[in-house]
Task: inverse folding
């Protein structure tokens, strides 16, 4: 099972978590493989699993009306406590030398005014918020999907669940660097 989005141009973006392995072959984090209508499109986001887990948790909390998100009456307009038009994540392809190129996947929040015509009285403007998930392949061709917070929550949660499965059930919500520190501290007490 892989995450996917129908884009505004009618194409389908498939996002598949792939395990990153250490020098002995043990999986420790993920990258994301992108496909456009089944054709390879790019690989992005090395070690991005904990970011996805944080975004999933943030969107879930916002939809429940926590923090600044409660000012939006419609749960589909509720996103994590970010500036009105901000970026939730941005993953790029990086070579071992740190060079950027070869693909990108990002999610930006946008506030969109919509005109609601009135029947007996004048119309009004209504503000909505949407997540714009955009992907670019190595060739520079872009794709865009526009999502409600419910759709973004479902998409990101599906990626996190798939990633945790390919990592043998390890919980991505815990930052591996924090785990290293905890293991170091716990190990220091022994002996």
Result:
């Amino acid at each position: 099972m892989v995450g996917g989005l129908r884009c505004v141009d009618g194409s389908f973006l498939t996002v598949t978590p792939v395990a990153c392995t250490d020098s002995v072959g043990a999986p420790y984090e993920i990258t994301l493989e992108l496909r456009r209508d089944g054709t390879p499109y790019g690989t992005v986001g090395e070690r991005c699993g904990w970011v996805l887990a944080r975004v999933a948790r943030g969107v879930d909390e916002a939809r429940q009306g926590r923090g600044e998100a409660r000012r939006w009456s419609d749960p589909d307009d509720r996103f994590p406590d970010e500036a009105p038009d901000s970026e939730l994540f941005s993953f790029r392809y990086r070579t071992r030398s740190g060079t950027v190129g070869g693909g990108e996947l990002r999610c930006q929040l946008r506030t969109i005014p919509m005109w609601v015509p009135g029947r007996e009285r004048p119309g009004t403007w209504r503000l909505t918020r949407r997540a714009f998930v955009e992907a670019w392949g190595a060739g520079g061709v872009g794709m865009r999907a526009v999502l409600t917070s419910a759709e973004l929550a479902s998409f990101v949660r599906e990626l996190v669940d798939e990633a945790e499965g390919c990592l043998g059930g390890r919980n991505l919500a815990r930052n591996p660097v924090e785990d290293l520190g905890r293991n170091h501290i716990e190990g220091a007490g022994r002996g």
In short: The mean pLDDT is 85. Strands lie at 3-6, 12-21, 27-36, 39-44, 87-94, 100-116, 124-136, 142-147. The chain is about 25% helix and 40% strand.
